[in-house]
Amino acid sequence: MTVGRVGSDVDRPMRAVGVPTLMSDVTEDTGSPSHIGRLLFGLGLALQASEDFRDMDDTVEYAESAGVPMPDVAAPFASGMMLVAGAGIALWRLPKLASGAAATFLAVVTLTMHDFWNADPDDRDGERLAFFGNLAMFGAALVFLREAFK
Protein backbone atom coordinates (compact mmCIF):
# COMPACT_ATOMS: atom_id res chain seq x y z
CA MET A 1 0.00 0.00 0.00
CA THR A 2 1.46 3.35 -0.99
CA VAL A 3 0.94 6.50 0.97
CA GLY A 4 0.61 9.82 -0.79
CA ARG A 5 -1.70 12.53 -1.92
CA VAL A 6 -4.89 11.41 -3.57
CA GLY A 7 -6.21 13.61 -6.35
CA SER A 8 -4.96 17.05 -7.27
CA ASP A 9 -6.22 18.96 -4.24
CA VAL A 10 -3.14 19.88 -2.19
CA ASP A 11 -5.26 20.65 0.87
CA ARG A 12 -6.47 17.06 1.07
CA PRO A 13 -4.81 15.12 3.90
CA MET A 14 -2.41 12.30 3.15
CA ARG A 15 -3.83 8.79 3.38
CA ALA A 16 -3.21 5.36 2.00
CA VAL A 17 -4.15 5.20 -1.66
CA GLY A 18 -7.20 3.02 -2.28
CA VAL A 19 -8.31 3.00 1.36
CA PRO A 20 -11.48 5.04 1.83
CA THR A 21 -11.89 6.81 5.13
CA LEU A 22 -15.12 7.55 6.90
CA MET A 23 -14.38 11.27 6.82
CA SER A 24 -13.23 11.51 3.20
CA ASP A 25 -15.12 13.99 1.04
CA VAL A 26 -15.09 11.88 -2.08
CA THR A 27 -14.69 8.16 -2.40
CA GLU A 28 -11.95 7.25 -4.81
CA ASP A 29 -13.73 4.31 -6.44
CA THR A 30 -16.81 6.10 -7.80
CA GLY A 31 -16.09 9.79 -7.52
CA SER A 32 -19.27 10.24 -5.49
CA PRO A 33 -19.53 11.99 -2.13
CA SER A 34 -19.38 10.04 1.12
CA HIS A 35 -21.42 6.86 0.71
CA ILE A 36 -22.79 7.06 4.24
CA GLY A 37 -23.65 10.77 4.00
CA ARG A 38 -25.44 10.56 0.68
CA LEU A 39 -27.22 7.35 1.67
CA LEU A 40 -28.52 8.88 4.91
CA PHE A 41 -29.51 12.17 3.29
CA GLY A 42 -31.18 10.55 0.28
CA LEU A 43 -32.93 7.95 2.39
CA GLY A 44 -34.16 10.65 4.77
CA LEU A 45 -35.68 12.64 1.90
CA ALA A 46 -37.27 9.56 0.33
CA LEU A 47 -38.73 8.35 3.63
CA GLN A 48 -40.11 11.78 4.42
CA ALA A 49 -41.78 11.83 0.99
CA SER A 50 -43.23 8.37 1.56
CA GLU A 51 -44.80 9.64 4.78
CA ASP A 52 -46.39 12.47 2.78
CA PHE A 53 -47.84 9.94 0.33
CA ARG A 54 -49.10 7.77 3.18
CA ASP A 55 -51.34 10.61 4.36
CA MET A 56 -51.75 12.76 1.26
CA ASP A 57 -55.04 14.24 2.45
CA ASP A 58 -53.27 15.87 5.40
CA THR A 59 -50.38 16.93 3.18
CA VAL A 60 -52.76 18.63 0.75
CA GLU A 61 -54.66 20.24 3.62
CA TYR A 62 -51.42 21.56 5.13
CA ALA A 63 -50.34 22.97 1.74
CA GLU A 64 -53.75 24.58 1.32
CA SER A 65 -53.51 26.20 4.77
CA ALA A 66 -50.14 27.68 3.76
CA GLY A 67 -51.71 29.26 0.68
CA VAL A 68 -50.06 26.97 -1.89
CA PRO A 69 -51.85 27.33 -5.24
CA MET A 70 -53.52 24.14 -6.51
CA PRO A 71 -52.52 22.16 -3.41
CA ASP A 72 -54.18 18.98 -4.70
CA VAL A 73 -51.65 19.00 -7.57
CA ALA A 74 -48.69 20.77 -5.93
CA ALA A 75 -48.47 18.56 -2.82
CA PRO A 76 -48.26 15.19 -4.62
CA PHE A 77 -45.90 16.70 -7.21
CA ALA A 78 -43.59 18.09 -4.51
CA SER A 79 -43.66 14.79 -2.60
CA GLY A 80 -42.86 12.87 -5.78
CA MET A 81 -40.03 15.28 -6.54
CA MET A 82 -38.60 14.71 -3.07
CA LEU A 83 -38.96 10.91 -3.37
CA VAL A 84 -37.15 10.79 -6.72
CA ALA A 85 -34.50 13.28 -5.56
CA GLY A 86 -33.85 11.27 -2.41
CA ALA A 87 -33.50 8.01 -4.33
CA GLY A 88 -31.23 9.68 -6.89
CA ILE A 89 -28.95 11.10 -4.20
CA ALA A 90 -28.85 7.86 -2.20
CA LEU A 91 -27.93 5.85 -5.32
CA TRP A 92 -25.93 8.74 -6.87
CA ARG A 93 -27.82 8.38 -10.15
CA LEU A 94 -28.39 11.54 -12.21
CA PRO A 95 -26.80 13.44 -9.30
CA LYS A 96 -27.11 16.90 -10.88
CA LEU A 97 -30.83 16.45 -11.42
CA ALA A 98 -31.43 14.72 -8.07
CA SER A 99 -29.50 17.17 -5.90
CA GLY A 100 -30.85 20.13 -7.89
CA ALA A 101 -34.41 18.90 -7.34
CA ALA A 102 -33.76 18.45 -3.61
CA ALA A 103 -32.24 21.94 -3.29
CA THR A 104 -35.11 23.51 -5.25
CA PHE A 105 -37.73 21.66 -3.21
CA LEU A 106 -36.13 22.64 0.10
CA ALA A 107 -35.58 26.28 -0.89
CA VAL A 108 -39.24 26.72 -1.81
CA VAL A 109 -40.80 24.64 0.96
CA THR A 110 -38.61 26.03 3.74
CA LEU A 111 -39.59 29.63 3.06
CA THR A 112 -43.25 29.11 2.14
CA MET A 113 -44.45 26.26 4.33
CA HIS A 114 -42.41 26.85 7.48
CA ASP A 115 -42.51 30.64 7.79
CA PHE A 116 -42.61 30.57 11.59
CA TRP A 117 -42.42 34.38 11.73
CA ASN A 118 -45.99 34.46 10.31
CA ALA A 119 -47.32 31.46 12.24
CA ASP A 120 -49.91 31.57 15.00
CA PRO A 121 -48.34 31.56 18.47
CA ASP A 122 -49.55 27.98 19.03
CA ASP A 123 -47.81 26.77 15.84
CA ARG A 124 -44.70 28.96 15.95
CA ASP A 125 -42.40 26.53 17.81
CA GLY A 126 -43.21 23.61 15.52
CA GLU A 127 -42.77 25.70 12.39
CA ARG A 128 -39.47 27.10 13.69
CA LEU A 129 -38.20 23.57 14.30
CA ALA A 130 -39.29 22.46 10.81
CA PHE A 131 -37.69 25.59 9.31
CA PHE A 132 -34.31 24.92 10.92
CA GLY A 133 -34.45 21.21 10.03
CA ASN A 134 -35.16 22.10 6.41
CA LEU A 135 -32.44 24.75 6.49
CA ALA A 136 -29.91 22.08 7.49
CA MET A 137 -31.15 19.75 4.75
CA PHE A 138 -30.97 22.61 2.23
CA GLY A 139 -27.33 23.10 3.17
CA ALA A 140 -26.66 19.39 2.61
CA ALA A 141 -28.47 19.52 -0.74
CA LEU A 142 -26.22 22.40 -1.81
CA VAL A 143 -23.12 20.41 -0.85
CA PHE A 144 -24.30 17.46 -2.93
CA LEU A 145 -25.23 19.75 -5.81
CA ARG A 146 -21.72 21.21 -5.80
CA GLU A 147 -20.23 17.71 -5.76
CA ALA A 148 -22.44 16.67 -8.66
CA PHE A 149 -21.00 19.47 -10.81
CA LYS A 150 -17.34 18.64 -10.04
- What is the count of helical runs? 5
Helix/strand class: mainly alpha
Largest sheet: 2 strands, antiparallel
The share of residues in helices is 55-70%
Strand-residue fraction?
A: under 5%
Strands of the largest sheet, in order across it? 1-2
Mean pLDDT, nearest integer?
84
Overall strand count: 2
How far is it from the N-terminal to the C-terminal residue, by CA?
27 Å
Task: Count structural domains.
Answer: 1
The outline comes out as globular
- The rounded Rg comes to 18 Å
Return the string of H and E elements.
Answer: EEHHHHH
Low-confidence stretches: 1-28
Description of the molecule:
By secondary structure, this protein is mostly helical. The protein has one domain. Helices cover 63% and strands 3% of the residues. The chain contains five helices and two strands, in the order ββααααα. It has a two-stranded antiparallel ribbon. The chain starts with a strand and ends with a helix. The N terminus is likely disordered.
Layout of helices and strands:
Layout: E1 3-4, E2 15-16, H1 35-54, H2 56-65, H3 71-91, H4 95-113, H5 124-148
Antiparallel strand pairs: 1-2
Summarize the structure.
Helices cover 63% and strands 3% of the residues. With 150 residues, it is mostly helical.
Please tag this protein with its features:
2 strands; 150 residues; 5 helices; mainly alpha; disordered N terminus
